[in-house]
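Need tokens for this chain, all 297 residues.
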Amino acid sequence: MLVSVVLALLTSASNATASVLQRRAASQASPSKSMHVSLIAELARRKVWLAGIGLVIVAALFQAGALATGPIALVQPIFIIELPLAILLGSLVMHRRIPQRIWIAVAAVTIGLGTGLAAAQPGGGTNNASNGLWILALIAVGAFELVVISAALRVKGEPRAALLGLAAACGYALTAALLKEAVAALDRGPAAFFSTWQLYGTAVAGVGALFLLQNALQAGTLVASQPMLTVGDALISISLGVVLFDENVRVGWWLPLEIACLAVIVLGCVEIAKSPLVGAGEHQPGAQVAHTVADLG
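Here are the structure tokens for all 297 residues:
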């Protein structure tokens, strides 16, 4: 279990860096290319975006190891720590002092996550789900994505960024569930790994989630998209872990505490996402990290 926690933290660090890089690249893209494949083609010409994608691949390798050694209901929520790590990274790059309010937000997210996981005590479960459960899960995820994306297309700005962030979160949660079962097939040998449909489902779901994330980042600020992405990923992943892999999450009398921790995490994430240290303040004076990153492009 400790190994999975360490690997999940390494995943978060990689994703935090990638998020800052991708946000900078996506914010400079033409608004007319929103929800078009041409957006990815434009971003692919930017070195900063490619660097972010490289870190996404590194994060995926760490994530595979974490999911292979621990339950998805434990691993995925740890990724919430991504925003606090992004703040620390931004502070080091910019050589700037982190404001007190941001330190409070970082502490709130960290303590809220730790307390929430301690209360929920996620664990147990298996590495394989029946095809029947997978069919139900895919139908549910597909319906959810259809509703959220349809709603996003009817609005603009921050509401669209938030909704697309939630859609991306759902895609990443499904990617994690598929990856967990695909990695488990390695125990039966390389042939079993490459013949399992979940492996190719991981690629499809991952590309789809990446596409939604780029559009979320292009549509609005991190304040709108990042909390929905990180918290949504955690909650949907827990649901998939319980339904697909029979993982256990403690509720009952612990539920009010878990809801309170979730509220603290959301408020902390919103406050952190306002900081230029994570790339949300490109147009604010002193947002030096954005210009430093832009120099790579």
